[in-house]
Amino acid sequence: MGLLKNLALSSILLSGSAVAADWSNTSISLLSGTDYVNPFGEDYDQTIITFEHVSGWTYGDNFFFVDVEKADTKDDQSMYLEWNPRFSYNKIMGQQSDGLVADFGIAAQINIPVGFRRIYLYGFYVDLKIPGFNFFQSHFYVRDDLSVEGTGFQVTLVWGLNIIDKLSFGGFLDYAGEEGDDTGKKEANLLMQPQLLYQVTKEIALGVEFQYWDPKLAVKDADTEQVPQAMIRWTL
């Protein structure tokens, strides 16, 4: 599948996810970095185009993104998708929360690395009201990676805050436990992508995203990936 087809598919999926939303935000980001870790071969440089969409609806919210990746060691692009729907206790019950817990409810997620086996996650979430943060979300999942036997767990944190006027700090952290058996195993691993962005205009932000993955792809004895990525984001 070529780059243009990947971009067209991403646009269609993002447009469809915005239907009947109470609110939504959609953006396109361009990221570029060097020395990404390849546990199975030589390291590589890479450019990534990310389509990202978040929206709220009557009973919860949705988060969805598509990465179209082009490594300098490959002729073709690769594609990766995630969809994270959540069902809100507050919205379903028609109430507001006071205090530390802003909301909680049921959460699910599907990870789709195109051409490889999918990963399904299901569990619950708790959103917290932390002073200074625009939002702070915690998710607790059962993780079912179809490429290995059995299930594991994953904890995901997502946050966003304004440091000063026009300068924001956000990102996510995933910690996944060991999964699989002697015939195939994924090691416990930590992936995080904090971002520091400066809002140049209402639509355009510039900054850096730091990708940390230990061990890369949950492969035993793989090197730790630590890659700063130049980033530009366009909010539609």
Automatic annotation (TrEMBL):
<dbReference type="Pfam" id="PF03502">
    <property type="entry name" value="Channel_Tsx"/>
</dbReference>
<dbReference type="InterPro" id="IPR018013">
    <property type="entry name" value="Channel_Tsx-like"/>
</dbReference>
<feature type="signal peptide">
    <location>
        <begin position="1"/>
        <end position="20"/>
    </location>
</feature>
<dbReference type="InterPro" id="IPR036777">
    <property type="entry name" value="Channel_Tsx-like_sf"/>
</dbReference>
<comment type="similarity">
    <text>Belongs to the nucleoside-specific channel-forming outer membrane porin (Tsx) (TC 1.B.10) family.</text>
</comment>
<dbReference type="GO" id="GO:0009279">
    <property type="term" value="C:cell outer membrane"/>
</dbReference>
<keyword id="KW-0732">Signal</keyword>
<protein>
    <submittedName>
        <fullName>Nucleoside-specific outer membrane channel protein Tsx</fullName>
    </submittedName>
</protein>
